[in-house]
Prior knowledge:
Blueprint: H1 4-15, E1 19-22, E2 28-32, H2 36-41, H3 47-51, E3 61-65, E4 69-76, E5 79-86, H4 89-94, E6 96-98, H5 116-130, H6 137-140, H7 150-166, H8 173-185, H9 188-194, H10 196-201, H11 211-231, H12 236-252, H13 256-281, H14 288-298, H15 307-314, H16 318-329, H17 333-351, H18 356-363, H19 368-379, H20 383-390
Parallel strand pairs: 3-6
Antiparallel strand pairs: 1-2, 1-5, 3-4, 4-5
Helix pairs in contact: 7-11, 7-17, 8-9, 8-11, 8-13, 11-12, 11-13, 12-13, 17-18
Amino acid sequence: MLNKQWLTTDLARDCNTFISRLSNTHEPLQQACINPALLSVGWPANLIAQLTPYLVATQPQLIRVNQTLLFATLPLDDNLLLIGPLTNPEILKNAHQLTLTDKPFSQLDHVPYINTQFLLQLLLNYFNLTHSIELTQADLLTTAPFNLDYLAQKAYTQHTFEQQESQLMHNSYLQEIQGLNSVTAGDIERLIANRKTFFRNGIGLPYQNNLRNAKNLAISVVAVVCRAAIKGGIHFETAFSMSDHFIAQIESLDTITAVVQLARQIEVEYTLLVHQQKQATNPHTHNPKVEKMKQFILSHQNEPVTLQDLAKYLNSHENYLSALFKRIEGQTITAYILATKIEYNQQLLIYTAKPISEIAAFIGFSSQSYFSHVFKKATATTPNQYRKANTFQ
């Protein structure tokens, strides 16, 4: 077990600044500092309260306060270490900007400097030691809004995929991906169908007894669903405005059940918004049979799907379905199947650390070489090249 009390004191020596250890509700548990200049100024009484709405427990954060002060966070089990104030121009450029009305540490003549590699490696070492999600320096330096973006999707994807593999998860990774595809398509029926298992079995095990973790998961869901809605045609300002509102609602709740219910309501609201947008801009392209074909294809992405399978599923003639799909969607059924598989593979390559051979097998390809051939033909790049080029955005 990690001795967090000792670690707090040790980091205060190594970083030469305040180290504040907080509970999962951001209540102060311990504070250590050996820097005489900082001790003479003292810790601002309301600083933790001002930072609290922006602190998350899913990954380390780099926070720039009022342009000049650097703070870092390090999640450790049910605690959160807040490190700072510090300064480092290189890191400040990539940190999340936060402007406070108060001017903390304005009396300080010299803010303690910290080496870039030292801080990043410190955060990575302790985080990766205590979490199943492995982060890199690129992850820490990826600029993203406080309501999460790349890291949220990475945590969300890896969480669902890892639990699906280990049988800890009550809802398959495929269903979660289909949930996002449902949002992008504005398909409320498919969204609800894809989450029946989730409702029947309850929220995933790691979140059953921890309100803070449930909120963090819900905030991550907001982030990825928001992006799915933007992909579905919603203007980014509208989507992000809704995201900010929903995150504030999540933070105001005091039970896990309420958090779960709100997260699912958020999925529905984004999906309905996409549906309304699509109906308004393209009212004549919705066809029930085509939607059922697309749903069947999306729910069998890790299996071979043929036109014969679709004809049997819908009790219709193959030629009729083929012509109908081409007229409504503007592409053949075969092209759609390939496109959905490629998109699914891209998500797995970006947001999980699974070997390419494992991804190929999971999605139903007979071999890694065949998977690489198909992937390169569709994207003009190999799976490995795609992963390296798109690991963070």
